[in-house]
Amino acid sequence: MVNNGFRTVETTRGPFDPGGQPDLETGQPLQLGFFGWNVRAGMMASKAVLTDEARLADYWVWERSSKLIKLAEEIGFDYQVPFGRWIGGGGATNFNGAALDFLASAAATAPITEKMGVISTAHITYGFHPLHIAKFGATIDHISNGRWGLNIVSGYQAQERAAFGRLDPLDHDEAYDMAEEFVVLMKHLWHEKERFNFEGDYYQSYGAIVAPGPSRSPRPVLMNAGGSPKGIDFAVRNVDVVFTLAPSLEGYRDKVAQIRDLSTKYNRKVKIATMSWALIEATDELAAERLAWYQDEVDLEAVYGYYQALAGIDTFGAGDSSAKGDDYEGYPGLPREFVETFALGMTSPRLCGSPETVAEKIRALHEVGIESLFINFSDPQKGLHQMQDDVLPILRKMGIRN
Ligand SMILES: Cc1cc2nc3c(=O)[nH]c(=O)nc-3n(C[C@H](O)[C@H](O)[C@H](O)COP(=O)(O)O)c2cc1C
């Protein structure tokens, strides 16, 4: 207890929504996010990207990514969502081995856009104090006139934690308890008009204030990317968008039901988002041909690099990667299933096929309860134009987009 004359706030755990939750409606039945634009080769670990690196791998270079983001907004995408990655998987493609920062880049995307939400990702357990993020966020929210949002990820990779000097193991569930306190303190910082004290188990703050506060009322949008029961519980208790994955439509249906039950229990409104990987061609046959080429050229070393980094984590719903597999192509313990689901699309639903097929796949996801779909394109320049010319008109006819 510090006797500094400031009030100590009582609430240190969620659910906590002073002033309520932000309104997330954009008028679109299915919201769209332009995903993973900031990372080399996005969600495609294939040596095929080396045939045209500027287009298929290094679209993150600002000269290109800034144009892609503007194009995504023009087409009607509701958000830009970066992928939060500090260290790549290596291999011949240097997969994900370059990334524009996923927190600061929202500030750069704000003045080049007018309507779309600009999202940052922060790994909260790597050492930020909530005051850092509350201040950065309030600033980007000002610059963007209330369009900033934060994707909170707990931070799970041992090699990334090590890069931040953290060699101690982090208990999975405790990371979410920390995250909850982190979020509650941020919400206080965005809400309180006077300096205050906060005394939690993981975070303390004495006499802090964030002025100016965020532009958006009551506060910026918060999202969590995760999938475990503890992660989902955390998300429904504390954030506004639950960004998750499932291995099948059935799996999504179950997850949506679980999230809806929890949101009734906690009396909170959340939107359900997922990510996807798109490969769109004029016909299904052409898309299948290109997919086969990407598959033939899979960068196994990069996939293996990722696999080892994910050891012990059921990160993307592909199963615990410490469960040893079958020495795929001479890589010790590498499960075939991991290669097949991870290399192209990082285990997310594949939007692969003709515009009609892709639109049907999107409709199927929407029908099982997905309200926001974040898309990483195998070829973003081409993919955004295909969305504009071919896929969005079908989605409009389906009543999924206005
Ligand atoms: C859809 C989705 C997107 C994710 N995006 C990121 C990301 O951009 N950066 C990151 O470090 N982790 C990301 N993660 C990993 C999660 O933040 C989390 O650490 C991981 O899923 C383990 O938590 P869990 O056991 O609750 O699922 C993502 C997970 C999911 C399911």
Automatic annotation (TrEMBL):
Residue ranges annotated for the Luciferase-like domain, each copy included: 62-371
Tagged with keyword Nucleotide-binding: no
One Gene Ontology molecular-function label: monooxygenase activity
The entry's keywords: Flavoprotein, FMN, Monooxygenase, Oxidoreductase
Biased amino acid composition, Polar residues: 1-11
Segments for region (Disordered): 1-23
InterPro entries: Luciferase-like_dom, Luciferase-like_sf, SsuD_RutA_monooxygenase
Pfam families membership: Bac_luciferase (PF00296)
Entry protein name: LLM class flavin-dependent oxidoreductase
Phylogenetic lineage: Bacteria, Bacillati, Actinomycetota, Actinomycetes, Micrococcales
